[in-house]
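2024-03-11 09:14:02 INFO worker-7 job=invfold-0412 stage=load source=structure_tokens
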């Protein structure tokens, strides 16, 4: 592992943050009713995971592209997942913005808005051979995916 700025990490973070900033003004109808019931332990995991993943993505140059090898397929897979994540958001922003719209799967991936970036982060961790990002991704996944599965269940949204 090598300390240094990661432009791949920055691109990943921008792909995450820009739609989330737009979402703050376009939340699903009644979302606040579900958010107030979030599991506090899962919320703690989510916040810790977000901070760790964000920081780690930026401080290791191992996540940058270093020429094509078979190992680069992990990075490519990560960006394919992030492109699906952007498609998920475009679809959501064009919808009526209901809880059902927010929790629609994409290509069979449940709670896609939570699951896709966690999977992508895990693949970047593998690409960069970084166990710290891998562990942070697991922490994030437990919290973030757990919270959104809870919201989906509470809203009684079927797949």
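2024-03-11 09:14:09 INFO worker-7 stage=emit residues=159
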């Amino acid at each position: 592992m090598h300390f240094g700025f990661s432009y791949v990490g920055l691109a990943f973070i921008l792909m995450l943050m820009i739609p989330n900033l737009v979402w703050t003004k376009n939340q699903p109808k009644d979302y606040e009713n579900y958010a107030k019931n979030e599991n506090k332990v899962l919320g703690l995991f989510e916040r810790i995971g977000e901070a760790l993943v964000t920081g780690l993505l930026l401080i290791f140059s191992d996540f940058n592209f270093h020429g094509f090898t078979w190992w680069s397929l992990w990075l490519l897979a990560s960006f394919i997942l992030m492109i699906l994540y952007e498609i998920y958001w475009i679809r959501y922003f064009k919808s009526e913005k209901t809880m059902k719209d927010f929790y629609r799967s994409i290509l069979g991936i449940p709670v896609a808005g939570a699951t896709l970036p966690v999977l992508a982060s895990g693949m970047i961790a593998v690409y960069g051979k970084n166990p710290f990002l891998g562990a942070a991704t697991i922490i994030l996944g437990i919290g973030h995916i757990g919270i959104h599965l809870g919201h989906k269940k509470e809203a009684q949204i079927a797949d």
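2024-03-11 09:14:09 INFO worker-7 stage=report msg="The chain is about 70% helix and 0% strand."
2024-03-11 09:14:10 INFO worker-7 job finished
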